[in-house]
Amino acid sequence: MAGRVKVNLGDRSYYIHCGVGLLAEAGRLLKPLKLAAPCLVVSNPTVAELYWPQLEQSLREEGWQPHLTLVPDGEEAKSLKVAAELYDACLAAGIERGAAIMALGGGVTGDVAGFVAATWLRGIAFIQLPTTLLAQVDASVGGKVAVNHPRGKNLIGAFYQPAAVIADLDTLATLPPREMRAGLAEVIKYGVIADAAFFEYLEENIEKILTGDRELLERVVLRCCAIKAEIVAADERENDLRAILNFGHSLGHAFEAVGGYSTYNHGEAVALGMVAAARLAVRRSSFSPQESVRLVNLLQRTGLPVDLPPLKAQALLAALELDKKMRHGRLRMVIPERLGQVKITLVALEEILPLIS
Ligand SMILES: NC(=O)c1ccc[n+]([C@@H]2O[C@H](COP(=O)([O-])OP(=O)(O)OC[C@H]3O[C@@H](n4cnc5c(N)ncnc54)[C@H](O)[C@@H]3O)[C@@H](O)[C@H]2O)c1
Ligand SMILES: [Zn+2]
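^ thats the input. predicted complex w/ nicotinamide-adenine-dinucleotide below
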């Protein structure tokens, strides 16, 4: 059981492979890329303990010489300090032009490993082996890589596409339920921004998906990747269309930041951001109250938070300004027009505050 999605970007096109048992197939799946034998595999202690043995075996069987290097588990791994340690690891492992850096883990590992791949020797091949649902449907696809600045998330980064993505659904079996739900927030996002039928499919199947049913998960991950691939192929550098992927994120990032990145994880904050955007949409666009209720219900059934925490105007403003989405005191927001279609609009801060206080 496996499928794949192509991200069409001319000579930088690549495949996203998705299915069960794929880490054990990684060596074979990556062979056509004709990369050098030594490679650097970046992971964290939690994920490496679970999945490094099978990845290592699969790579060695196909003649690779993988060097495992660990970064800390947690957002603090997305730092220039950890990136510097990875450059040292590249040197020690003899990672030259023609070799690859592989990221085995969630979005954190993928972002920092990708940042190093984008900059080491001015850019070498990068392979994503995402092990969280969020990374499989979102972070590993589309080529945004970054580390954090002490003053804000993802401020130092690049657009740098991977050469391949391999999403092994088996890895989701060990994912903590809270992380699974966080990934599902992004999954629901895809339904709202691009595919009403997919949204309905989620409404019909969410409980079964939450049990970890592989067949349903494969369908879900492939559909999300296909939606993101299409958007990225049309607007790789986020000049316009790609911004719709930020649905729920402008305010989501603010909820995340104000909660000190610990009260809410990314997916939970995005769920809250989508609730706020839906409320605004009911006032501002053709989005109906019934559709807004359907969104809130689906998020709730997924186990995601939907009650907006009160935010102080000043804290909100500070978070939004760092997020680069304010223009002349107004926030660039993605709001739904109906399920499956969104638009980008500028909203004054005074309009947002009543939604969240
Ligand atoms: N580049 C992009 O386009 C993009 C998009 C969305 C998010 N992101 C970034 O991704 C990060 C969030 O990613 P995430 O949610 O995957 O978080 P994460 O990488 O921190 O992983 C979440 C937790 O799950 C653990 N874990 C990972 N895989 C596991 C498995 N299979 N079994 C058990 N435990 C496992 C990790 O060790 C970690 O503790 C953020 O830094 C965010 O900025 C990037
Ligand atoms: Zn997100």
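The pocket of zinc ion (ligand 2) is lined by residues 138, 186, 249, 266, 270 (CB under 6 Å).
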